[in-house]
Specification:
The complex is a heterodimer.
Chain A lengths: L4 E3 L2 E4 L5 E6 L6 E7 L5 E8 L2 E5 L7 E4 L6 E5 L8 E8 L7 E2 L3 E5 L1
Parallel strand pairs in A: 2-11
Antiparallel strand pairs in A: 1-3, 3-8, 4-5, 4-9, 5-6, 7-8, 9-10, 9-11
Chain B lengths: L3 E3 L2 E5 L4 E7 L6 E7 L6 E7 L4 E4 L2 E6 L4 E6 L8 E11 L2 E4 L3 E6 L1
Parallel strand pairs in B: 2-11
Antiparallel strand pairs in B: 1-3, 3-8, 4-5, 4-9, 6-7, 7-8, 9-10, 9-11
The chains are: A mainly beta, B mainly beta.
Chain lengths: 113, 111
Amino acid sequence: EPEVTQTPSHQVTQMGQEVILRCVPISNHLYFYWYRQILGQKVEFLVSFYNNEISEKSEIFDDQFSVERPDGSNFTLKIRSTKLEDSAMYFCASSQGADSPLHFGNGTRLTVT
Amino acid sequence: GEDVEQSLFLSVREGDSSVINCTYTDSSSTYLYWYKQEPGAGLQLLTYIFSNMDMKQDQRLTVLLNKKDKHLSLRIADTQTGDSAIYFCAENADSWGKLQFGAGTQVVVTP
């Protein structure tokens, strides 16, 4: 069964550094998402992306965050200057249509020191 | 605002049925989901139900939806040790892809 893949599985970075989290959505899916889960908290929506632009973003998704689909297969989340509070598990998801269920990847655990 | 609540822990004996409950607040939800997360793994879509349905069955899984009470449940028949995981309830109240998750119910299956 096709799946969403995320790399790396674990990323450690120093505060103030830029990180790029990578995702390969399911190939025939058109809608892409990033969510995150801070340890001990609920999974939270960050951003949705369709047709090469952001459809919706949450309050968490401030100017430090950006998303990109640099080619036909990858979908990336960039955090420009990481803060300690950005430490979390980041999940990428994709769906075939706007009203289709979301399929999630295994997540990237980001640790900011 | 929207909120999704779940009990945090459920212990069940192998072979018994598990029932995981969830309540939500937003009546405009169109889909309600159950995701499973095993240790170190991602969120696996288990099943989902349209808001105009009240029951959906898929092999050992039965989802019941009570829209009046805003209550969703997941029943796992003949629970196995491989069913030990965290189960998340989620709804898409605001927009299609913006899911609101519960905190997750940790299910522990004992022999």
